Amino acid sequence: MLNILLATYLLIIGPSLNMWRSLYPKKDKPPRAQMLRYWSMSWPVLVMLGVLLIGSWQAGYTVRDIGFDMPLSNAGAWGLGFSALLLGGLFVAGSIIEHRYTAETRAKNERKLLDSPFPWPHTAAETAAFVVSMTLMTAGWEVLYRGFILLFLTSCVGLPIAVTVSAFAYGIGHGYQSAKQLTASIASAFVFTIAYASTNSLWWLIVIHAGLPLSVVPAALRAYRRNKIEILNTAI
Question: What is the pTM of this model?
Answer without folding.
Answer: 0.91
